[in-house]
Amino acid sequence: AWGNGAGIHCYSSSPSLENVTISGNNANSGVYYGGGGIYCSSNSSPTLLNCILWYDSPQEIYLYESAIPCEITISYSNIHGGETSIVTNNGIVNWLEGNIYEVPLFVGTGDHPYSLLEDSPCIDAGNPDPIFYDPEDPNNPGYALYPAMGTIINDMGAYGGPNAIGWITVPVNDDVIIQPTLCKLYQNYPNPFNPTTTISFSVTQNAVSGSDGSSFVTLDIYNLKGQKVKTLVNEVLPAGEHSVVWDGKNANNKAVASGIYFYNLKVGNKSLAIKKCLLLK
User: Can you give the pTM of this predicted structure?
Assistant: First the structure.
């Protein structure tokens, strides 16, 4: 890149990157440079889940210094150099559980050189939560959300192991077809809050799993360590707009401490959106 963000440049944006591989990008050209993997500016707040950022230069992640700090949230991802390699300036890094710093062992050749070798540390290292498994049904052993080579646990990266199906890849000169959004998770209000806040979300017909237009929806609260604090929604809901109030208490009905929390929306057992909120007392 002639400038910043050779892999992805986030400008006043907060994308959710899930099972994404960014590798071999260079942002060393130009007068200003940074973020061979990801560059964030103007109050950007991306989230990374099950991702691989490897061998990008001059660094994997660069948060530009600004009046309103940038913020990045990372979990179950393999980041070259680990947390200490991220250039934060006055930004914030939410380094959650499951992250590693190990050579990913890409295949390196063929049509999919960034798929994983059999002994890659990224296999079975992704988020273990979004797994469907019915122990009462021997014919339904479960599956990972993404193509997996090992067990039913998610892999890191876009491809999974060498025997996994993998996602369809799009060459840089071809058109990219953007699918319509299946749901939307809104920022809680008020934020910061004390003692209660309202979380709103919408579920569209495209996300439904039932013939009557309904979907099974889960909304969970997590702390900075990635530990589940409370489940706010866990039921079948009709398509449309919905909202729920969190009273700042955990599953045991005890008030939680001040700090940053995350709320994760799942539709049909697929994690679709994560946002953060701030409890101030």
Answer: 0.58
